Automatic annotation (TrEMBL):
InterPro entries: HATPase_C_sf (IPR036890), HATPase_dom (IPR003594), Heat_shock_protein_90_CS (IPR019805), HSP90_C (IPR037196), Hsp90_fam (IPR001404), Hsp90_N (IPR020575), Ribosomal_Su5_D2-typ_SF (IPR020568)
Superkingdom, taxonomy of origin: Bacteria
Gene3D superfamilies xrefs: 3.30.230.80, 3.40.50.11260, Heat shock protein 90, C-terminal domain, Histidine kinase-like ATPase, C-terminal domain
GO CC list: cytoplasm
Subcellular locations according to the entry: Cytoplasm
Protein name per its UniProtKB record: Chaperone protein HtpG
Lineage: Bacteria, Pseudomonadati, Pseudomonadota, Alphaproteobacteria, Rhodospirillales
An example Gene Ontology molecular-function term: ATP hydrolysis activity
Chief localisation class: cytoplasm
Quaternary structure and partners: Homodimer.
Residue span(s) of domain Histidine kinase/HSP90-like ATPase: 26-181
Species of origin: Caenispirillum bisanense
Annotated segments matching region C: 547-625
Length: 625
């Protein structure tokens, strides 16, 4: 087949420019990325050879070889792993960030220290080679194929693919180094990089310098199989970089070995930074499963529940059969036991962190709290343990609060844990719905994660106290002995509109607004604002309905209850006028009150054009008066 010239996908040139120039200070990472790719290729072939031993019969010893050539000014990274065919070559090397080029570009900040952590996460690690190479050649043959392929590019916008009949099994990446990058041809420099970044690789990484015998540069044993006493913090960190494809520090490292009814070793990491795919719809977990150090899969749903998908690492068990398939894994009872052990260990460590290092735990919670709360909704078996880990922002300051903290501060007569949901913490903290609770000194949870609407609806509460939204109809504030003493409450009660005037206003508002509201009633939760909207008992919460409408899961809007503040000057004025009879001005004011309440709740006015006209009319009369 003749050589073909093909174009990179649309945004490749921009990504390559960013990788080459923005990440210049971290240029040695190109070797870590190429060695990591080679290691994965060997792992995959080792697994395939379990059922197809003929694939490795000609060369069974896996290895990664670094070949510096000072005369040619090239550095070769070769492996005898699974290799690629033509379609895989074009797909893998002709498409940057198959998991989302646009998302990769959106997450770039311009800060090279932060941007470098995105390289591996988005599958662009190979392209870091262009930081040091003016052109790159890849010669590869997939295991089992009769011939191979050659891919070449200078990284500017196109690449060529041609047949390579003499290609060996695996992949050879030949970097034609730039003049200023010849340091990567020096054996001492290569030794240092491999020892720093790739010592944990379970495949031997060898240096072949001229006619000398190959020299193994790494420990070449699976890190998780070593004793914890033999492993340094730096080695743990670099292994985390390898399995997580990132450059941030691991927030938590958990290395355990389970023995007994089932035996397995696990090396788990909780990241410091949020992985880019944390909220993708498939919610895939990212643990690698090994059987006796033989890689099986990195896509095993049963190892961890979806609400722990941010955890990275490896699990190795000798009790699973070597020829296990992904379909068999889904129904393997041993996997369920491993999952229980892993989750219990993680929950125990998180609980310990929360107790011993609350400030450090707060940083974890700010990043992964929304995901952990998914377990409150999905994982009934472990809900009690997750409840101990959950933290909240509240109306009582900036510090994170646990359920235990909240219950310890409850007021006399308080029988519920109160909460309010919304999109923005600052906005909901100013909601009129909180006024009565503030007056009583009652703490309210401020919930702003989309999952909050789902787990609170199914949560049994904490201890003997149930959960209750302050946006739901029917408060029990009168029974709570709070900061506002009886005398102050009595004085406020005296300042309310006369009952007969208030009844007249309620009747007028109901008649004017009609089906736009479900009901109109005096409020005991308002102390400063004139009106608010609440969901009637049994109706869908307003914020949840807004979320569903935004995602096209609900079309119609449920009418809400309009509550009015009997002590507010505007309401008292309107009530006095309502007693004298309806008027066009009162009808305009009725609609303005409803629209004001809707705006405060994050909704648009019922009729924006009419709202503008009414507002201008009322303002004009106010100026004229």
């Amino acid at each position: 087949m003749a050589e073909e010239k093909l174009q990179f996908q649309a945004e490749v040139a921009r990504v390559l420019d960013i990788v080459v120039h923005s990440l210049y200070s971290h240029k040695e990472i190109f070797l870590r990325e190429l060695v990591s790719n080679a290691s994965d290729a060997c792992d995959k072939l080792r697994w395939m050879a379990l059922t197809q031993p003929e694939l490795t019969a000609d060369d069974p010893g896996f290895r990664i070889t670094l070949i510096p050539n000072k005369d040619a000014k090239t550095l070769t990274v070769a492996d005898n792993g699974v290799g690629m065919n033509r379609d895989e070559l074009i797909e893998n090397l002709g498409t940057i960030a198959r998991s989302g080029t646009g998302e990769f570009l959106r997450q770039l900040t311009g800060d090279s220290r932060k941007d470098v952590s995105l390289i591996g996460q988005f599958g662009v690690g190979f392209y870091s080679a262009f930081m040091v190479a003016q052109s790159v050649e890849v010669v590869t043959r997939r295991a089992g194929d009769a011939h191979g392929w050659r891919w070449t590019s200078d990284g500017t916008g196109s690449f060529t693919v041609a047949e390579a009949a003499d290609a060996a099994r695996g992949t050879r990446v030949v970097l034609h180094l730039k003049d200023e990058e010849h340091e990567f041809l020096e054996p001492f420099r290569l030794r240092h990089i491999v020892k720093t970044y790739s010592d944990h690789i379970a495949i031997p990484v060898q240096l072949k310098d001229g006619d000398a015998e190959p020299e193994t540069l790494n420990e070449a044993s699976a890190l998780w199989t070593r004793s914890k006493d033999e492993i340094t913090a730096e080695q743990y960190k670099e292994f985390y970089h390898h399995v997580a494809h990132t450059f941030d520090e691991p927030w938590l490292t958990l290395h355990t070995k389970a023995e007994g009814a089932i035996e397995y070793t696990s090396l788990l990491f909780v990241p410091t930074q949020k992985p880019f795919d944390l909220f993708q719809p498939d919610r895939k977990q990212h643990l690698r499963l090994y059987v006796n150090r033989v890689f099986i899969t990195d896509d095993c749903e049963g190892l961890l529940p979806a609400w722990l998908r941010f955890v990275r690492g490896v699990v190795d068990s000798p009790d699973l059969p070597l020829n296990v398939s992904r379909e068999m894994l889904q129904h393997n009872p041993l996997l369920k036991k491993i999952q229980n052990g892993l989750v219990n260990k993680l929950l125990g460590e998180l609980k310990k962190k929360a107790a011993d290092a609350p400030e450090d735990y707060a940083r974890f919670w700010d990043v992964f709290g929304p995901v952990v709360k998914e377990g409150m909704y999905e994982d009934f078996e472990r809900r009690d343990k997750i409840t101990e880990l959950v933290r909240f922002r509240t109306t009582h300051g900036e510090d994170l609060v646990s359920f235990e903290d909240y219950v310890g501060r409850m007021k006399e007569g308080q029988t519920h844990i109160y909460y309010i949901t919304g999109d923005d913490r600052a906005a909901i903290a100013q909601s009129p719905l909180l006024e009565g609770y503030r007056a009583k000194g009652v703490e309210v949870l401020l919930l702003t994660d989309p999952i909050d609407e789902f787990w609170v609806a199914n949560a049994p509460g904490y201890k003997d106290f149930g959960m209750k939204s302050v946006a739901a109809g029917g408060t029990d504030l009168a029974a709570i002995k709070g900061a506002e003493d009886d005398k102050a409450a009595e004085e406020r009660k005296k300042d309310e509109a006369p009952r007969e005037d208030l009844d007249s206003l309620v009747t007028l508002l109901k008649a004017t607004l009609g089906t736009k509201v479900k009901d109109v009633r005096p409020s005991d939760r308002l102390t400063e604002s004139p009106v608010c909207l609440v969901a009637d008992e049994g109706d869908m919460p307003m914020h949840l309905e807004r979320l569903l409408r935004a995602h096209k899961q609900k079309d119609d809007e449920t009418p809400r209850v309009l509550e009015i503040n009997p002590a507010h000057a505007l309401i008292k004025h309107m009530a006095a006028r309502a007693t004298a009879g309806a008027s066009p001005d009162l009808e305009d004011m009725a609609y303005l009150l409803l629209d004001q309440a809707r705006i405060v709740e994050g909704e648009a006015p019922t009729d924006p054009v009419a709202f503008g006209k009414r507002l201008a009319k009322v303002m004009a009369k106010g100026i004229a008066a």
